[in-house]
């Protein structure tokens, strides 16, 4: 629940400045769809990871005494008193890397399938002011349904930023080596999941929507095709997902 509220609050706070993607997988999807310029992707991703790192530092300072009390004075990654999972995600004991990878691909694809229609003018877009709580509900639903395997990261920044913080705050390099070097799964798999979700939405939904004038749209594919990385992104406010639009 707290993650969903955090997503909603962040979207209301930052939507007018950046569109409040909050997630490199979402930004990557928007680049593929031509809603964000490719040259902006590194800056978005870095800012998202940095934000997650700083947020982890705030949580650590706020709950420092409680963390040390539970860990009996130690900062550990595995075992009955581990506290690293407060910050980054780790798999359940039964989960294989392959199953965890699939879990993250499906979770992120589901996220994109749910949020892309919210500001698609050819579909049934939500009022701008309602997009943040709707996205928060999507995140809440995915978290409740898909957390048991490996925490439902569905966001490389949400996992990598806190993992880097735990590396520097005293948990050590085990945060990257534990569970058969699990760390790369919640970084790579969501990016692939965003591609899958975007392609599914384009192929089975957006290309079949009628144009605003009525009737089937013969050029729908040309309006929504995957963008060439070398081509400039269109400057359409209506194509920005969520929040008060901004002009890249």
UniProtKB/TrEMBL annotation:
Single GO MF descriptor: water channel activity
Q: Which Pfam families match?
A: MIP (PF00230)
Write out the ranges of the annotated region (Disordered).
Answer: 213-248
- Matching InterPro entries: Aquaporin-like, MIP, MIP/Aquaporin, MIP_CS
Membrane topology of this protein: Multi-pass membrane protein
Q: Which residues form the signal peptide?
A: 1-19
Q: Where are the transmembrane segments?
A: 43-64, 182-204
State the compartments where it is located.
Membrane
Q: Does the keyword Signal apply?
A: yes
- The coiled-coil segments of this chain are none
The catalysed reaction is: glycerol(in) = glycerol(out); urea(in) = urea(out); H2O(in) = H2O(out)
Against Gene3D superfamilies, the record matches this protein to: Glycerol uptake facilitator protein
Please give the family membership noted in the entry: Belongs to the MIP/aquaporin (TC 1.A.8) family.
Query: NCBIfam families annotated for this entry?
Result: MIP (TIGR00861)
Name this polypeptide is given: AQP10 protein
